[in-house]
Amino acid sequence: MHFQRSLVVGLIVILQISCYELNKKRFPDHFRIGLATSAYQVEGGWNEDGKGENIWDRSVHSIPSPIFNKETGDIACDSYHKYKEDIRLLKNMGVDHYRFSISWSRILPTGYANQINEAGVNYYKNLIKEIRANGLEPLVTIYHWDLPQPLQDLGGWPNEYIVDLFEEYARVAFTLFGDDVKQWITINEPKQVCQEAYGSGIKAPFIKSHGLAEYLCTHNVIKAHAKAWHLYDDEFRNKQKGRVGIVIDTFWMEPASDSEADINAAERQLQFIFGWYANPILRGDYPWQMKKFIGERSAKQGFKTSRLPEFTKQEIDYINGTIDFLGVNYYTTNMVSEKNDTVRNEVSWEADAETIRFVKPEWPFSTTWLRVVPWGIGKVMHWVKKTYGDIPIWITENGMATYGESLEDDNRIEYYQKHLSYVRDALEDGINIIGYTAWSLMDNFEWQVGYDDRFGFYHVDFKSPNRTRTPRKSVGFYRQFATTRCIVDKSQCVDDNHMDNVLRYVYQSVAVNNGH
Ligand code: GBH
Asked: Where does the record locate the signal sequence feature (predicted)?
């Protein structure tokens, strides 16, 4: 009986997915369409004009190298010298905004705000000027993973000292660039900043401290974000009139069956990856699932207190609601089932969630962790709204990797077309998505995998000193999307003026909740 029912449910799901028709409605005029990069992945100029060393510089130069093929970001796409060309490419694609990040050690070589590097500041002033002169809007990430090495020498993100230092860095950024930047992101993907950098140790500073440092790191990342938001709110908002958000990433977590255990496991996994950050910032505290599971496991493992730190009442009040918009990065989906971990001896973020994650063999492969599952982006949008209310969302990254030198990337076109179709559906369902940012403008340094995974619309020739950028076929698709606001040919596009007004309203209604 149960088997038959799941068979029927399964068939309906398969039918729904295979019969899915692209949404042909035009995106509203006020919907922002853009492209993203980050400082360490594109700039190069790693020790030029007074820039200080950061944790990626240190890691890529260490022996043995932790990076595939011993690659480095020393030159990367050479955007430190070629930023004008980058902006030409963006302009040529017809997009509305460019998301880039500031390198902390380029403007503050030691990480401390007592010493400002003028040349570094000028680089970003020129970049922002160029962006605006071309009619584009800058969407600026303050921290995209490149911590100044001297701050890592103090312990990095797991040391609470970082909270005030980040606030001072943010103050410098708001002061110097805030007249021309109205959309700020404090931190990109804190889950990677903590879990991949200080837990599983697959990103700089490559510290493996499973189930310990990764939680301490998060505690400080959340406080640092909240401090930067309050700083802006108290001292800059009136004059600069911008917005400050954070970018949180997640896979969609699809229950492996319709059993209650698997449904709970998938929800718990979302809370462990997304709620870990979103819940404190939007609801004041860690998700109950994390408090319960990590607390019980810590006790069973003989720890005196939970490995998950606690916020004080005062901290909860301070952190709660510190957001004007929520940035969401979506790339892929996992299936999730309940693990039934009775031993509970493993100390790690992965084990603490007590889930089993897997992918379906029929999902097209892009790279190790990335299968192409377009409907997942729609599910994430609905889940965010259901869980955190009617909050303005920027989709700040979405994309897939290809390999080698080919410029014929029909699979990338299909990836974007389908994901955007689900985004358009979500708009129609009343989800407040302000804009969409594809990753990435061009191939770039893909962290520990070097230059192997290529996420760009533009191919970059990393063997040439010119770092020549060549358009892939997908450039044509994205240009068409940005200029016509349609994911299908203009002739098939359907107008929907109603949505324009909805979006205009959404975009104007600043910020979220909790009295802010
Ligand atoms: C984003 O991270 C980053 O913001 C961006 O800098 C990056 O270039 C882009 O996406 C493409 O990767 O399975 O153990 O190998 C994406 C987040 C990073 C989460 C890789 C999953 C795989 C860990 N993902 N991670 S593992």
From this structure: 1-19
Domain range for 188 is 2-280+287-502
For the question of residue 189 being annotated catalytic, the response is: yes
Q: Is the peptide bond before 101 cis (omega within 30 degrees of 0)?
A: no
CATH code, domain with 483: 3.20.20.80
Domain contains 512? no
How are the residues of the chain apportioned to helix, strand and coil, as percentages rounded to the nearest 5? 45, 15, 40
Number of other residues whose CB lies within 10 A of the CB of residue 56 = 26
Q: Which of 192, 400, 412 to mutate to test the pocket of ligand 1 (most atoms within 8 A of CB)?
A: 192
Measured distance CA(41)–CA(44) in Å, rounded? 8
Q: Is 189 in the pocket of ligand 1 (CB under 6 A)?
A: yes
Domain count, the chain: 1
138 falls within a domain: yes
Quote the CA–CA distance of 147 and 499 in Å, as a whole number: 41
State the pTM of this model.
0.94
3-state SS, residue 23:
coil
378 and 422 Cβ atoms separated by less than 8 Å:
yes
- Token pair, residue 468, equals 């020549």
Report the DSSP beta bridge partners of residue 358. Answer: 335
Ligand 1 centre from 264 Cα, in Å? 25
Residue 165 lies in a domain: yes
The rounded mean pLDDT for the chain is 94
pLDDT in tens, 262-306: 999 999 999 999 999 999 999 999 999 999 999 999 999 999 999
Closest CA to 183 of 118, 132, 122, 123: 132
Annotate 454-497 with DSSP letters as a single string. Answer: B--SEEE-TTSTT--EEE-HHHHHHHHHHHH--SS-GGG-B--H
454 domain-assigned: yes
